[in-house]
Amino acid sequence: MSDAQPNKAKEAEKTEKGEAKWMKVAKERLTFIQLIATILIAIGGFYLNFQQNHIKEQQAALSQKIQMEKVTHDFVDQVTKNLDKLKLDPNNNRDIIISLLDIITEANLQENKVDTAFRELLPLRIALVAGSYEMLAHLAHDGKERDQWIALAENSGNTNVKTTAIQALEQIGKNSKTDEDLTLCLRKMRDISENFTNKGLLPVTVAAIDNLLDIVESDPSRQESLLLTHELAMINVSLLAMEKGRPNYINSVVLSDIKGYRKRINRLLRSDTLMGDNVKRVVKTKTKPAETDSFILNLIVDLESADKHVRRAARNRLVILGQEAVSPILGALKKDPDNYRIKMGGAYVLFLMDPPPKIQKKKSMERIIHLIGDNDELIRKYSTDCLAKMHDPASINVACEIFGDAFAKGKEKDGNLVYNAVVVLGEWHSSEPEFGSKIETLLQDLRVTLDQDTIMEWPKTIKRIDKVLRRRS
User: Fold this and answer.
1) First to last CA, the chain
2) What is the pTM (predicted TM-score) of this model?
C-alpha cells in the first residue's frame, strides 16, 4: 500500500468530521431561530389579541356614550315639555335645563365611577335648580345633606337657587325642635343673602326672618337661648347697616320694614339699644371679665381674615361691644394704617355704633379724620358718617381743633379730606347749636384759604361752605 492511500483516508475522515460539526452548528442555529420565531409569534399574538380587546373596549365605550347621549337628549326633551306645561319664566326654564345638563355631564365624565356622595347630592342639586324648597326641606332638613345643599347655594351665583335655599331654611326653621337648628337657619339665611346686601334676595330674606321671629316671640324659653340671642343681635347689626347705609335699591317702604324688624328684635333682646347690657353679655358669654381685652383683640385680628363670614361676624360683634371696642380699633389703625381690611372694618364698626363712639384724644381723632380722605370711597363714607353723627362735646371740640390746625396751616390739600371735613362741620352746625359760632369761624377761614389757592380749584367745597354759612344769615 502506498503512502497516498492513508492520506486520502485521513482527509475523508477529516471532511466527515467537519460536515458533522457544521450540521450540529446548523441544527443549533435552526433551533435558536425557531425559538426566536416562536417568541415573536407569541408576542405578535398577544399584541394582536390586546389590540382586538382594546378595539372591543373602545367600541363598547362608544356604544355606551351614544346610548348615554340618546338618554340625555330624551331626558332634556322630556324636561322641556314638562317645563312648557308649567308656563314658567323663560329665563327660569333656561337655568334649570343648563343646570340639569351640567349635572348629567358631570356624572357622565365620571365614567360609571360616581361615588355615594355624588349620588346623594344629585336630587338636592335638582331640587335647588328646580326651585323646590319643599323637597329640600323634606329630603335634607338636617345633618350632612343639609350642609351640602347650603354650601351649594352659598357658592352659587344664581339668585333663584339662593332664593330656594332661603325658603327651604325658613321651612326647616318653622319645624325646628332645638335652638341650635333655628339659630343655624337664621345664620345661613343671613350668609346666603350676603348680609342682606344682595338686593335680589333682600325681600325674601327679611320676610323669612320675620316669620321665624314669630316662633321666637311665641316661645318664652327660646328668648332665653344664648345662641338665638346672639344671632338676633348679629341680624340686628346687619339690618342697622342697611338702614344707615341705605343703598339706592331700598325704597321708603323697605326702609320702614327694616326699622320694624329691628324694633321687634330689640324687644326680644330686651334692650332699647343695639348695645344694651343684655346683648353685650351674650356676645361675651364665654369670656371672663379679665379676658375681655384679649377677646376684643382677637376680633380685631378677625377683621383681616380671608373668610368673609369671619370678617362679618367680627365686625358685628365689635359694633355690639360699642365703646369698649373703640380704643382697640384705633390702636389697630395706628399699628397698621395702610391695611385695607383694618381701615374698612374699623370705619364700618365706628359708623354703626349706637350710641356713637366717643374719641376725646387728639391723636386718636386724627386717625379717624385721616380716613375721611382715604382713596376708597366706602371707607370715606363710613368714617365721614361716623364723625357727623357724634354728639359728645369733648369729641367734637377735639375734631374742630384738628380741622382748624389743618385749614390754617394749609397742611391738607387732599380734596376728599377737605370736602368731607366741611360735610362733617355742616352736620354739627345743624345738630349741635352750641358749636355754631366756632364752626362758622372755621368755615369762613377755610373759604378765604380756598379762594386764595392758586394751585387747586375748589368749586364743590366752596358751594358746600356757602350753603352752611347761609343758614345763619
Assistant:
1) 166
2) 0.68
CA distances from 274 to 183, 200, 268, 292 (A): 19, 27, 12, 19
Burial of 240 (0-12, 13-18, 19+ CB in 10 A): buried
Domain boundary among 146, 175, 204: 175
Last residue of a domain, one of 130, 156, 175: 175
Let me know if residue 2 belongs to a domain. no
| DSSP 8-state class, residue 223 | G
The per-residue pLDDT for range 129-173, each reduced to its tens digit, is 666 778 777 766 667 778 888 888 888 888 888 998 999 999 999
H-helix or E-strand containing 10? helix 4-86
Give the separation between CA 423 and CA 441, rounded to whole angstroms: 15
* Cα separation, 50 vs 216, whole angstroms: 70
Residue 160's contacts (CB-CB under 8 Å, 6 or more residues apart) are: 92, 95, 129, 131
Which spans in 247-307 are helix H? 252-268, 277-283, 292-302
Residue 222 lies in a domain: no
